[in-house]
Design goal:
mainly alpha, about 325 residues
Length: about 325
Amino acid sequence: MDSSDFRIIYLFTDLLAPLIVGYLLYRRGMISDNLIRRILRLNVIVIYTILALMSCWTLPISWDLALIPVYGILIVLFPGLIGWAFFIRKYHNPLDRGAFLCNAMMSNITTLGGVCAYIIYGEQGFGYAQIMGIFQTILLVLAVFPMAQFYCLQHENHGGTGKVSLRVRDILLSWNQLSILGMAAGLLLNAAGIARPPAVGTAFEGLIHFGAWFGMLPVGALINLHRTRRYAPYTLDLFILRFLIMPAFMFAISYPFVRDPVLLGAIIVFSVTPGAINSVTAAKLYRLNVDFTISGFLTTSIAFFFLVYPALYFLLR
């Protein structure tokens, strides 16, 4: 039996379970906002830096790696373009339009996509998620934030009040991006031909569960069913975009060029990954419709966990 057959249980133990636990703990007042922030920072700065180093240490060095930046950029910009061209006309409020595009452009590749790719492909799939996540972060600053600010100012009738200023350097060069150094270190060790000790692989197998729990538990704490359920019917456009258009597009542009079957399959997994917490961050920062972004994250995540990913698992494994 393939090892991925055993790892499918991680969909429930490492992804669904921490979401539910985080939701219940927060609603009962057992964890605070401050603790949630600390968990997120520990995960992003420490655990994911170590995991990135470990996984990139064994990635096959090939020309396919050079294609990841291209796909990492397209997986953000293309859904934004399609959403802008075909879907946002039904939303008359600029705050709703901006929130929809935040959901369309941002997906949870690094955490959720990484674990889901790991379930099917092992460490190699996880490593590809970390590299692609770099370019998602760059596009968050260079494309998503300016778009969100545009709709915020449009709502204010182009007034000068309330304009949010950002220092790009503070976002790209922060402790939250420390995992980039982990990836670079892993790739350098890989390129130098230094064999990874077997104990590192064993440590990875254990540490990835901590990373999944520390990444998904805070997301569960953010879920507010009462506030977001009213927007659920309006998120159906995201289903068409995320689960039909995106995988078809990403497969069409990657199949002719990507020779590594693991990378090809991982790209398909990343293309259907549901909304990211970064979309909520952008909506909060620019006073867009936060409840819409959370509702979009919640509805697409439910569909992903119970329908899309199980089907994809049996198709790709």
